[in-house]
Amino acid sequence: MKHQINHEKDLQNAGLESTPVRQAVLHIIEEQKSPIDVASIVSSLESHNIKADKVTVYRILDLLAEKGLIARLEFQEGKFRYEVATSDHHHLICLNCGKIDAIEDNWIEDLEKEIKQKKGFIVQRHSIEFYGLCAECQKKST
Amino acid sequence: MKHQINHEKDLQNAGLESTPVRQAVLHIIEEQKSPIDVASIVSSLESHNIKADKVTVYRILDLLAEKGLIARLEFQEGKFRYEVATSDHHHLICLNCGKIDAIEDNWIEDLEKEIKQKKGFIVQRHSIEFYGLCAECQKKST
DNA sequence: TTAGGTGCAAATGATTTGCAATAAT
DNA sequence: ATTATTGCAAATCATTTGCACCTAA
Predict the structure, then answer these.
(1) Left, alpha or beta for A120 (phi > 0: left; psi -120 to 50: alpha)?
(2) CA within 20 to 30 Å of A7's CA: A60, A77, B18, B70, which one?
(3) Does B5 touch chain A (CB under 8 A)?
C-alpha cells in the first residue's frame, strides 16, 4: 500500500519537482486497477477537490511517461490510457463488458530474442493487447 | 501480383458493392508495404486522380475492416493505420527511422492458450507491436 | 423507385500550442 | 530575479454525424 508521500519521492527520484497536482495525478493512476484515460483523471481530480486544468494534466502525463513513472497505452479507442509502470504484463480487454484484466507471461522475452536473431531488430518496448471475451461474458452473452 | 479486378471479387465475396472508390482504396492499401493512415490514403487517391471525399474513405475503411478485408492498427500515434488482412504477424516499428517491418511467430498461439487456461479469457484478436531499433539504425545512431 | 453510395458542412473528442499569470527556489 | 508550473483561450488533428444528392439495380 503506497501513500501520497511516496509519490513525492518517486517524483524527486525522477528529477521532477513534486507539486500537489503531480502527486495527485500519480496517486489517481496508481489507485486505479486498470489503465485510465485523461478525461477520467481530470474528473477524478475534481472529485478529490484538486483544481487542475486539463492541459496541465496532459503535460504532467507527458512528463511522467517520459520519465518512465507511468506507461502510455492505446486500446483501439482513439485515445490514450495510462497506468503505473510496473512489471511486464499484457492486457486482456473484454469486447463485451469492457473490463480490462492483465496477465504476465514468460513467452515474450523469448519471442524478443527471436526477433533479435531473425531480424536484427532490438526491441525496446512492446505493446501487446488481447481482445476477446472474459469468463463472465462467455456465460452471459453466449 | 494482384490486379484491380481481384478487388472487385474480394468486395463481392464480402457482400459489398464494388465501386471505383472502394476498389481504389483496397488497391492502395494492398500496394503498400506497411500499414497506411487515412490521410495518406486520401492523398494517394488524389494522385491516382480518383476523386473521393475523406468521409467516404473513412466509411469505406470501416466497412472493409468490419468485413475482415483489412485490419485496423494503432502505433501509438493517436490515429489508425490499415493493412490488408493477411496471415498473422506482428509489427516491428523502428523508433529512429520509423520503418515498419513485420515478423511471424509461433509463440502467440500458445500464449493465447495459456490465457484461456489461466484466465478463462477467450482471445478473439490481438494487437502486438514491438518498438525499438532496426538493424540499420543500430549501426548509424549508436 | 428505392436502397445504397457519396459529398459537403458542421460537430465532436482528444490533444497541442501560445502566451500570460503565478509560484517556487 | 529567474526558472518552472499552471491556467485559459484558441488551434489542430483525427474521426464522426446529419442530411441532401446522386446513382445503379
Answers:
(1) left
(2) A77
(3) no
- Say which residues have a Cβ less than 8 Å from residue A36's Cβ, sequence separation at least 6: A28, A29, A44, A81, A82, A83
User: Can you read off the three cell numbers belonging to residue B74?
Assistant: 494503432
Three-class secondary structure of residue B124 per DSSP: strand
Beta strands in B44-142 (DSSP E): 70-74, 80-84, 90-94, 100-103, 122-133
Q: Which residue is nearest to nucleotide C15 (CA to C1')?
A: A58
The reply to whether A140 Cβ lies less than 7 angstroms from strand C is no
pLDDT of residue A5: 55
Mutate to test the interface with B, among A121, A126, A133, A136 (most CBs of B within 10 A): A121
Measure A76 CA to C3 C1' (Å).
32
Protein CA B66 to sugar C1' D20 (Å): 26
> CA–C1' span, A40 to D14, in Å?
21
Taken in order of first residue, the domains within chain B and their CATH numbers are 7-84 (1.10.10.10), 90-140 (3.30.1490.190)
Find the angle CA(A85)-CA(A90)-CA(A91) to the nearest 5 degrees. 100
φ and ψ at A121, to 5 degrees? -90, 125
Q: Along the 142 residues of chain B, how does pLDDT read in single tens digits? A: 444 457 888 888 888 899 999 999 999 999 998 999 999 999 999 999 999 999 999 999 999 999 999 999 999 999 999 999 987 899 999 999 999 999 999 999 999 999 999 999 999 999 999 999 999 999 876 5
E-strand ranges in B8-75 read 36-37, 70-74
Cross-chain Cβ contact A103/B118 below 8 Å = yes
